[in-house]
Amino acid sequence: MKTATNQSQGMLLFQLTSLQSFAIGTLKVKEIVPYTPLTAIPHSHPTVLGAANLRGDTLPVIDMAKAVGYPPLSKDELKDCYIIITDCRRMLVGFLVRGINKITECNWHNIDAPPSALGSNVFVTGVMKVDDKLIQLLDVELLLSKVFPDKPGSLLPVLTDVQREILRPLKILLVDDSAVARRQLSQALDSISIPYFIATNGSDALNMLQHAADVGSPFDIIVSDIEMPGLDGYELAFEVQNNSSLNHAYIILHTSLSSEISVSQAHQVGAHEALTKFEANELIHAMLRGAEKVSTVD
Asked: Where in this protein does the record say 4-aspartylphosphate is found (predicted)?
């Protein structure tokens, strides 16, 4: 399948245990630094080891192994550890890991969904093979949501009765491989009584969109994550915009990455908007702009 997007992305491979390697996308990574002494943070989550001051930024540092259920780091190990500094969910966070392996290129099409045997409460969004070894792609969003839970009110949008009635007749599709993100999106729309459909990956979403168009009930608004195994959000947007039976839909891509690059690429592949997730009111107002555009097309 040819698209205007580059499906290859850098993956940072690292160790949480001596046997198992894990990965996160390099777009989430700002910097990797050796362990530095930390300042205690009173009343913090048990997995937060303290705060580091790096280049003028003070950020919490999480024992990633402990956070995902592996043995925590011992004091003797700290001097040999590294801090992966990430920019995700609009916050700078450091993850302390036992070792850094390498950065490798990976095509999203080569990342598979995690095996069902792992269960539904694991911190893994996909698995891939590198040098014949199985690598687990960590769900950083889920991990952060456990350590720094959202305040309930921050997930709930505010809108007028008139705005609600503008959105209610529209056919809305939410697409995200992260259970945390799907729950946030669902809670936001449930709280204002807006109906919607859900797809857990880009391929299923494209099939749903095509079927809906074939039966004469096309979707009006698509809200999709960007980083997904298989068919990612960029490619989904490109396929929709290049299909005359689907391009009626208003496409909103969202990402946990605080990156201008992500926003720029989203517009290049035909998305109407790109948001840094998650802020409920921003999303709802983007959908209202979509409703206005869809109504002018009709």
From this structure: 225
Return the pLDDT at 5: 45
Give the relative orientation of helices 179-190 and 280-297 as an angle to the nearest 10 degrees. Answer: 70
Do residues 179 and 94 both lie within one domain? Answer: no
Enclosing domain of residue 280:
152-297
Amino acid at 50: G
Q: Angle at Cα 293 formed by Cα 291 and Cα 294, nearest 5°? A: 65
Distance CA 167, CA 135 (A): 41
- Is-contact 5 108, C-beta < 8 A? no
C-alpha closest to that of 176 among 186, 191, 189, 168:
186
In the structure, what pLDDT confidence band is assigned to residue 197 with cuts at 50, 70 and 90?
very high
Q: What is the pLDDT of residues 240-288, one digit of tens each?
A: 999 999 999 999 998 876 556 567 788 889 899 988 766 788 889 999 9
Helix (H, G, I), strand (E, B) or coil at 7: coil
* pLDDT at residue 26 greater than cutoff 90: no
Total count of domains within the chain = 2
**222 and 110 assigned to the same domain:** no
Give Cα 171 distance to the centre of its chain.
23
Of 128, 125, 156, give the one whose Cα is nearest residue 143.
Answer: 125
| pLDDT, mean of residues 101-116 | 80
Mean pLDDT of the 55-64 span = 92
Indicate left, alpha or beta for 83 from its phi (over 0: left) and psi (-120 to 50: alpha): beta
Enumerate the β-bridge partners of residue 81.
Answer: none
